[in-house]
Amino acid sequence: MLLSAAYEMNTLSCQQRSLAHLRCPVQLPNRRSRNRSAAESLTEPSREGHSHAKANLPLISRSFGRRQAQGQLDLPRSLCSSAAVAEAPTESAASEVLHTLRFDGGVTVKVSKNETTWTLDLHLESDAATLLHWAINDWKLPGQSSWPANTNQVDDKAVQTQFENHQIQVQFPDAECPSRMVFVLKQTEPEKWLNNGGCDFAVMLRPPGVEDIMTKILTAESEYSHWGLVPRFMLANETLDAADAAGAAGMAFMLVWMRLSTQKQLPWYKGSNFQSKDVAHIQKTLAQRMGDKVRAGSGPWARFFARLCLAGLPRGGGDGDAIRMGILHIMRENGIREGHRPGIEDGFLEQWHQKLHTNTTPEDITICEAYLHFLHCGDVGEMYRVLWENGRITRDMMASMDKPITHDPLHLPHLIGPFKHFLWILKTCHSGADMDVALEMAKGSLDGDLTWNLYDLLSHRNDWWVPGKLVELRGRLEHYWRSEGAQRDILLLDIALDSYFRTCIERTDRSSLQGDDIIELVTLVLKNAIIASENEDLAQCWRLWERLRSTDRWTPEWGLKALAAAQRTELALAGFADHIHHLVQPVAERFQKVCGLNPAFTANFGEEVVRGQPIFVLSWLLQSLGPMLRKTAGVGNWLVTSQADASGTLMLQPSLADIQGQKFDKPTIILASQVGGMEDIPQNVCAVLTSSPTDVLSHVAIRARAQNVLLASCFAPEELQQMESLEGRHVSLSIDPLGSVTAAEAEAAAASSSPESGSSTGKQKKVEATRPKKTEEWVLTEDSFQEGLCGGKSRNLAILRSKAPAGVSIPASLVLPFGTFERVLADPANKQAASDLQSLLSGLGGKGSNGSSPMSLLSKARQLVATRLKAPAELQSALTAAAKTSGLSSGSLDWPSTWSAICQVWASKWNDRAWLGRQTAGLAEDDLFMACLLQQVVPAEYAFVVHTANPLTGKRGEIFGEVVAGMGEALVGNFSGRALSFTVAEGGNQPKVLSLPAKRDGLFAIAPSLIARSDSNGEDLEGFAGAGLYDSIPLQPLEAQTLDYADERLIWDSSFQQQLLTSIAKAAQEVEAAFEGSPQDIEGVWSDGKLTIVQSRPQVL
């Protein structure tokens, strides 16, 4: 009987809607052979020769896994349906071996590829006369060009090819290569059909995309009339390789699917029945193969999601038939009526027996536990309480099962012993990550000492020392479950230990924890997390805390280091959680929409997955530790980056970016969960409060100070929660002597009576920009950088070239002057682009002619300028020549990259923020001109921004600076986390460190290159903070890396730290002197022991 027999009641129209190519050639046992297992009957397909005749389910086979790409596959023959031959790939000029697979049916397939052809070499071990019965994708007829010799078509779906000398070679032209090849074997003397343990043999070639997988599964879940837990597991088994090939997104989908099933949001019983031995077999197969993906999936995140899948799966295996026979033996041996056999009438046991016989599932464990509780106490109400608490099973749910259980049980306490044993039988089949079951099943694969320690831990599982010992034993266990051929029970044991570790931490009395206790727990939680997560981000945090543990604690200097470590860890935890949520929540919502699930259940699905991770306990540990560290470091709960008194109506916002371009009709205080660092302050906003750390020298902080807006970050959640309670009320904010922001409710009249405070609360003074001079030059070298031809950024570099402090470098640079963009646009080659751009810009005063919003028009304008402009030949030749003479290029420029970067800089004139800023400032569009500065990129070890007048106090001569690892874009762009910040008092030379670096990510230039920088005539205007509104584009993209501070010199080498900060401060003072004592906003880098100033501009005070 074919697998489709379980779904044969589907209507033809339903099948036609569900993509014909999604059909699965997997078989179910013949219903007439009720005493034969699925495993037995599946090895003998019907005489028609192939199993795809009526099947609904898709089969997507083995993927290009991480180790498969190396010619290895971590699926041992003894544990799964196919295993790799341990054969390293060979390469030749003609082809590359992609992978080699050996199936238990005695056939080996080697897949290789060259520029034009995909080749499958099949080798048969048996001497029996055998035909290869094969097709492509989901049993589609292959094109004749791929048929080997001695191939005959047998129907409209498949062909047969005779093995000769044990060999067959199949070739596909690259343009016609399918996703996969599927086949079964037909021995002809005597006739016997062989398949892959109940499935077709399948070799993945070009794996399908995640959307194809999702469509197939969602079709089955939403349309098949015969469906349930076992068919779902069959489909999961068939699609697992394809999901893994799709990477993190594919395995995240698999997790959502399996989790929704475990939580019974998807049906377990819908017109399908299976014997217990068949249930055990498919559960075992899926659990083992999922375990193989945990060990050898396509990537770290794919392996992580496979682990989460396995955590919710039943282990399978055991003696599945013992479930069916076990309940019968109990009933017969204890005189319980069964069928026509006379005995004690117990409708509950009779109905449960029928369910166990036809559809045993993991919920039978809960039923057995609840029944045992009833046998002990005799209270049927207690049974239903345990059913609900242990498995969320209600009386109505029992009655609605495919084999309903509607009777209450009789109180027969003499059955306690037999059902305790029966519970163990159920657990060996259905239990997943159960510590006791998993250890019992895995002990044979472990060394004696580890086994003894694990049993000792379980026997003392409630003792105080268990968490530390548990992590130690998990570290020893890792070797076993990562080894090739590891059985699933070892992984299930590790998952159970991981889960119990969280339980141990959560039951700790928080009020009794001292600072040192929390530090030890933080380190232990991180160590536990990285055993299985393969997350380098978290590993970097663990190494940092390990170093902190080994130093003298609770000094102010240590407090700053620990504060930085805590914030770095918070960012790693947030990144970990956000990535999970980003991948699983949209999938849950799609299931809700397609399958009609309860929206209330899926609304917080992603958050529940995140909160279910053992590492989530790190959140409250860090929250408890924060106040202790701030007190030790002498740091308050607030970081004020722009000082001002403010009063207005308090409004809550998820993000400051969400209200860009809005105008408020009265003074408003924004309490935003997220501030990115590049935003503008909307008109009539007088204060922005946030939980996001904000760098003092980020663009948003500079704009806040220029607009007299209070900008502050709060690190005490309880204080922000108190302010949130004032939402919609008029509030007055002030800064106390300790630097904390205080809030008090104010009268509405008072709140609107301070027009001198806040962003544009009074009438905005119109800003004017100087119109540029005309020039016929396409490119200017530094000796021609003049006012009216280029912006202050370029001109100041030319000044510094002759006045740079000793030992400080200035990078080589060129400028495409003001008017170059307009000349390019006027070139005949760009006539159509110019016309299209003018049409777009003409609609920016409001809705365009087609109803487009200004933001949509701006986006189209940027896209046009960035991609459609053609460079005049004169410009290209002039720039190439100037690059050689100025030292920017020793040879020919990479022209495509150079031109693309230049055009993107010009396009940034129409950034949303830039356009909104000009609108607010009253700066006319035709008055804004964009020069483009081409500058040598210095690969930085550290980048810094320095203001020679303290931006917080306005005090001249008092230097304030910030330093980050890598390039400065992470600093001015306010990447999450604090920078190292320091001050140098007027007339002093000793830097005072205010905070240590905690940014999660840094940007790095891998090799010397060029960067195209914006240099407009609207960036240094009085009353308009134009810096950062326009883009700078590296010709070679910068590489983002998570930062490892465990050995970072900025933190741990005080001598180097002071030397670097002193040299930066000294250079800043000399740069200010070069501009006749005018306070400067300076950007630079440190590389190979040398400082380079990349920019200096007048500081906005």
TrEMBL record:
GO terms for molecular function: ATP binding; kinase activity; metal ion binding. It holds the Pfam family Ig_N_CWD1. The keyword Phosphoprotein does not apply. Residues 638-744 form the Alpha-glucan water dikinase phosphohistidine-like domain. Residues 746-762 have a biased composition (Low complexity). Residues 106-204 form the Alpha-glucan water dikinase-like N-terminal Ig-like domain. SUPFAM superfamilies: Glutathione synthetase ATP-binding domain-like (SSF56059). Keywords: ATP-binding, Carbohydrate metabolism, Kinase, Magnesium, Metal-binding, Nucleotide-binding, Transferase. Residues 899-973 form the Pyruvate phosphate dikinase AMP/ATP-binding domain. The keyword Transferase applies. Signal peptide: none annotated. This is Pyruvate phosphate dikinase AMP/ATP-binding domain-containing protein. It comes from Apatococcus lobatus.
